[in-house]
Write a structure and sequence with these properties.
- This protein is α+β, with helices and mostly antiparallel strands and about 525 residues long.
- The chain has three domains: about 240 residues, no CATH class; about 80 residues, no CATH class; about 200 residues, Beta-galactosidase, Chain A, domain 5 (Distorted Sandwich).
- It is built from 13 helices and 19 strands.
- It has a 17-stranded antiparallel beta sheet that branches. The chain has a two-stranded antiparallel sheet with strand order 1-2.
- A hairpin with a 7-residue loop joins strand 17 and strand 18.
- Helix 6 runs parallel beside helix 9 and helix 11 packs antiparallel against helix 12.
Length: about 525
């Protein structure tokens, strides 16, 4: 429902803006006296799910443990915490999402909290020189830009629907702060830039994205507020940061999901729809049957957000996501994802496998499913290729790294049969001609939650039973395979959720510099 900037009591009419700020907006947005001309604002939809428990804790003066901010006086709000003004969770008003209107009338409590924020804002150093003297090790330019952009988005999504319930004076301050933040997104605070110890610090990719998506969100919320040149520049930045395969520029699945959630809020900006289509293809490729996201980085979940961003309908999946060095195979009821790491890593190419809608091979907080080295290395030149022939789909991930000036190469090749009932894999580590042998911890397979492995009597194979009452036989001839319990979770009362790992290690007689491990996963019918 659209909202007017001025209601019957004259809210917004007390906020007056100077010529410097007014010049950053489209002509006609401000009256001659500097007041904002009444216009309709459309609240943004937010597809990021709220956490009800965190909202209830917040109303009782408790911040989420992950923020490490501690408790606060519920009447003064989280901005009474000394570190609140330089913490992303509070500075960007991310907590607004968890304050569901179902908790009752939030206007009185938010009036107190916002008043405290304005008090703290007034106490902050304002000039570039004062900021430099006050906090030489303060937040970077990129951090400040992200906080400001997220604050604009969160205010438009969560504060705007309640704005008319606030006092006229508070409304005026809110509109002034909102327009000032938008203006600083359009043109950075040069006084602040001058105070930075490293001079003109370039924005990182996440800051560039947040700035551009916030400006486009403003256009969706209040069409005609920003100049066309500002809109075009922001749209160009988004185009640059979303690759042709739909991945965010850093190749991160979570970064791509975050970008998709921002794009989904721009329902009234039709120009972003081609970008949105690309991102949704990448997300659909990385989506498990249960809706969650394949991250390759030991983090699970995000299913609710993925499903809300994708919406109804079937989306095309890609076989290769080049930006993230990710390959995907879907054969029968089996899905396999592989990612070749880039940068600091302790493992080679990583795999995740889903069978019958259940995680068979996964990545948890206790390890990733890959060849693990005894030390961290810097992965270079990641490659991913796919080939389909002879009733099989083949994925090959390859990356290199250097040790003592000698290049080593790690290659993972996985072949999936057309019916998805047989997977053959090979993990190889090739050492440089004169380089030292690279020590490995072993080849790790982190099994999905509820998967129960049992060694055969002869010790030559492992039978893995899944929660879907299916069974897969794992074999790795010539190597030792150990079963270890990787996790016990007692958080769900009396239930015990165990995760297991398979650890494949070379036999003691293995002395060669190069290492090649061949393994098989074969579906078995249970009697």
């Amino acid at each position: 429902m659209p909202i007017q900037t001025k209601n019957q009591s004259g809210a917004g009419s007390h906020a007056r803006f100077g010529h410097e700020l007014r010049g950053l907006f489209e002509s006609g947005v401000f009256a001659e006296d500097g007041t904002l001309v009444p216009r309709q604002w459309h609240p943004l939809p937010d597809f990021r799910p709220s956490v009800q428990e965190e909202g209830l804790d917040l109303l009782q003066g408790r911040t989420p443990a992950r923020t490490e901010l501690g408790g606060f006086d519920p009447f003064l709000g989280p901005f009474s915490i000394p570190a609140a003004m330089t913490h992303s969770w509070t500075a960007s008003f991310e907590f607004l999402r968890d304050l569901s209107p179902s908790y009752g009338d939030l206007v009185p409590i938010l009036e107190l909290w916002l008043d405290q924020w304005f008090v703290r804002q007034a106490q902050e150093p304002q000039s570039g020189l004062a900021k430099w003297k006050a906090a030489t090790n303060g937040p970077s330019r990129s951090e400040i830009m992200v906080w400001r952009g997220r604050r604009v988005i969160n205010w438009l999504a969560h504060l705007l629907p309640m704005a008319q319930g606030f006092s006229a004076n508070l409304q005026a301050r809110i509109w002034h702060a909102l327009l000032a933040d938008i203006g600083r997104l359009v043109e950075p605070d040069r006084g602040l830039l001058a105070s930075l110890t490293q001079g003109w610090e370039p924005l990182n990719r996440r800051a560039v994205w947040t700035r551009a998506s916030a400006l486009l969100s403003v256009t969706g919320s209040a069409p005609g507020l920003l100049r066309q040149a500002t809109f075009d520049e922001a749209l160009e930045r988004l185009e640059e940061l979303i690759a042709a395969d739909g991945m965010f520029a850093d190749g991160s699945p979570l970064g791509t999901l975050s970008a998709a959630a921002d794009l989904a809020m721009m329902t009234r900006v039709i120009e972003v729809e081609p970008i949105n289509e690309r991102v949704r293809t990448a997300l659909a490729t990385l989506q498990r049957t249960d809706g969650s996201l394949v991250t390759f980085n030991k983090q699970h979940g995000y299913g609710g957000l993925v499903e809300s961003v994708l919406g109804p309908g079937r989306w095309r999946r890609a076989s290769i996501l080049k930006t993230g060095h990710i390959g995907f195979v879907e054969s029968g009821s089996t899905r396999l994802w592989m990612r070749t790491p880039l940068g600091p890593s302790q493992a080679g190419p990583i795999c995740e496998v889903e069978a019958g809608g259940i995680e068979l091979i996964s990545c948890s907080s206790f390890g990733v499913s890959a060849l693990e080295f005894a030390r961290h290395v810097e992965m270079l030149d990641p490659q991913m290729r796919r080939r389909d022939d002879d009733g099989h789909a083949l994925l090959e991930g390859k990356s290199s790294f250097e040790v003592e000036g000698h290049r080593h190469t790690c290659v993972r090749t996985v072949k999936v049969r057309q019916d998805g009932r047989h997977i053959h894999g090979e993990d190889a580590l090739f050492s440089g001609v004169n380089g030292p042998r690279v020590l490995v911890r072993g080849l790790i397979f982190d099994l999905g939650e509820g998967c129960d492995p049992v060694s055969s009597r002869d010790g030559e194979s492992v039978l893995i039973r899944t929660p879907a009452r299916q069974a897969w036989r794992f074999r790795c001839p010539g190597f030792d395979t150990q079963i270890s319990q990787s996790n016990m979770n007692f958080s769900a009362g009396l239930s015990q959720n165990r995760r297991h790992q398979l650890l494949v290690t070379p036999k003691a007689t293995e002395t060669g510099k190069d290492l090649i491990i061949r393994w098989d996963l074969q579906f078995e019918d249970l009697i």
